[in-house]
Amino acid sequence: MTDTPDAAVLESLDPAHPPQQGEAAPHQPRTLGFWRTLLWGVLIIVVFFIGQLTPIGYFLLRHEGPIDSLAQFEVAMIQIASRSLTVSLSAIMGVPAILIPIYFAVRHTRMSFADYLGLRWTGWKNFALGVVGMVVILGCWELAAQLTGREEKSASFMVDIMKTARGDGVVWLMIIAFCVAAPVSEELMARGFLYRGWSDSFLRVPGAIVLSSLLWTVLHLQYDWFALLNVFSLGVWFGYLRYRTHSLYLTMVLHGLNNLAATLQTMWLASGNG
Predict the structure, then answer these.
(1) Residue-number span of the structural domain to which 95 is assigned
(2) How many domains does the chain have?
């Protein structure tokens, strides 16, 4: 028995009636590349700071003292910005302020939000590697601080904020802000969005790690140059782990553990043991 091709197949073989081809789907870049990542990054940082300034603006509007001059305004701003509740709420407000613009930026790519940012966990061996590397880096900086006589030059403003947090009963809120909210928002921006876009550009992975770490360090200008070098070195280590594991959750957890250790040290100093 011989199979007979149907009419549709015969028509498709007719040169006068070539098979119709569907329209190609509009091309979208896999990542945003260098310049679009940079432009979106500037917007994200601006929105991030606006979000962090929101609690300050709220408390400024509710300020009971007179604000009739620039000097009074500066005094009120210092008083409000140095309150533990304000600092904590500012850090927490940074999370939605980061998430919203990043969400709209990632929509311009062919990747899902989670895949673009590396929102996945990794193995416990990588976690152990990350912890060991972080401890070694922090240990080296601690040794350098002792050798140069900088061990006593801690961030006194953080100690003062912790003291006010104890007085106001918001220590728990500060722990959430510093150990959860701040790591989440900063990692989303640095090792999440900026690294992902730049690693596929002419910078490649090494350049993306260095540049994103530099911008992350700029967010910590309240510290002196010695502490900023510490921050930058941690940023490079976190960037390497992001490249090695493709996991942003790992750097978030390590960042949170680092902040937790710093918070516990600050609490110890605030109790008068420093």
Answers:
(1) 30-273
(2) 1
Question: pLDDT tens-digit profile of 198-254?
Answer: 999 999 999 999 999 999 999 998 888 988 999 999 999 999 999 999 999 999 999
Domain membership of residue 21 (yes or no) is: no
Q: Which of 80, 88, 93 is nearest to 48 (CA)?
A: 93
pLDDT tens for each residue of 111-129? 999 999 999 999 999 999 9
Asked whether residue 17 is domain-assigned, the answer is: no
Residue 19 within any structural domain of the chain: no
